[in-house]
Amino acid sequence: MDVTMPPDPWQKVRTYHDIPADEVISGLQKSLRRGAAETALLLGYEMFLTSEALEQKLWARLQVIPVEDVGLGEPMLPVLIETLFQQHLRVAWPSPERFLFAAHAIRLIARAPKDRTSDDMAGFARLELVARNRTPEVPDYAIDMHTRRGIEMGRGYDHFLTEASHVENELPERDTSFRDRLQAAIAAGELR
């Protein structure tokens, strides 16, 4: 599997201080990975100063990085970054106040514990399904009342409750009273 990147249109753009834009974008992400907040901040502001289009690219990276590089290190970070993104839209570019939201996002990402497992998982999926042409298997427990084959096999609500809706890592204090009532209704013939 070829992992070379296609040509990037930002390779042809120069920033406010005449730096190749693709290098500024790359520097932003690599600095955030290393927790280098000041470097990331200055590169982010360089993007903001250059153009509204490059500011949009800044936000595109700031929205991906929390998933790609932070992951479970700070699982709610994508939600916070999306909120900051929405808030920045209320301030017209190039108002300096607009950059406050990006600065805060940069600060949050830089200081967050890092976990690149989600990106590793995505790369592994591409490797298996594309490079190795592996066909994923649908497990038997997924063949239930929501699939044609499950219906043909007569798998109804009872099968769904006992097999298809089974969860691992369930909360110990989970309230099962409603599930118990549903199973009683199945036993009484009220549900199928």
From TrEMBL:
Superkingdom classification of source: Bacteria
Signal sequence region: none
GO MF terms, alphabetically ordered: DNA binding
Protein name: AAA family ATPase
Cited Pfam families: MgsA_C (PF12002)
Domain spans labelled MgsA AAA+ ATPase C-terminal: 58-160
Gene3D superfamilies, per database record: 1.20.272.10
InterPro entries the record matches: DNA_pol3_clamp-load_cplx_C, MgsA_C
BP-aspect Gene Ontology terms: DNA replication
Organism of provenance: Pseudooceanicola albus
